[in-house]
Amino acid sequence: MGDDFSSQLFAKTNVAEVLRGELARPAWRRETVAIGTSTDPYQPIEGRYRLTRRCLEALAAARTPANVTTKGTLVVRDVDVLQELGRVAGAGVNVSLVTLDEGVWRALEPGTPPPAHRLRALRRLVGAGVPCGIALAPVLPGLTDSPAALEALVRAAADHGAEWLWAGAIHLEPAVRDYFLNCLERHFPAAAARYERVFGAAGGPAAARYAPKRYADVLQSHIAELKTRYDLAERRRPARVLESSVPGTPSAALPSVKVPRQMALPL
Q1: What is the pLDDT of residue 254?
Q2: Assessment of whether the complete model's pTM goes beyond 0.85
Q3: C-alpha closest to that of 63 among 93, 33, 30
Q4: What are the φ and ψ backbone dihedral angles of 261, each rounded to 5 degrees?
Q5: What does CATH list as the number for 4-171+210-229?
């Protein structure tokens, strides 16, 4: 498989037309649509095809609420459509952000916008009246889960206008397990052995798909405390009509944040 998932992309160029047809069905009840749960809707190729934008326009025309989850800052391009969708049905954006550490970001999320850029995009959207939150998943044991790292990220989310934050411990499906473990071995060999004890070695049989329950429970408890401290909800509140459509402006330069990478929660 290698990096095929990021280098071989398939553009379904008629997706907006198909979506409009589905939304026009008499049985459709305008349930909230989740965009970006299986692949990022704002990969660089979206700049050429504009498929996500056209889907958002179709949802707005059908008065169907939606939530978008993305690592991509290109979402800011579509602020006008998100505003319209918010006015007629409800819209929200989950900015996917798992670390403020640029070393971890470069190694594990190549080709994605840097953490500071995603926070600026968050502030731009919030300034334009689009409800936003943070998707802090997966949390990576030994790399992004120290109390200091987690608090720095939650604090940054609140400072940039996030209304909610949800988090989850890592789990490795077969399609990505070997790729991820090989990446760890290459960039963070000291941490790789911990993962192999739980998930099995790359190329061998899988031991587990999910982090141990004890670890996940401790993590969720800690995240809950941080969300209470910084007044962040668990999920987006019920869809609401936006009262403002004033375009946002970029914020001042973000401060540099040094995030420690020690293991703090048990794996």
Answers
A1: 40
A2: yes
A3: 30
A4: -125, 30
A5: 3.80.30.30
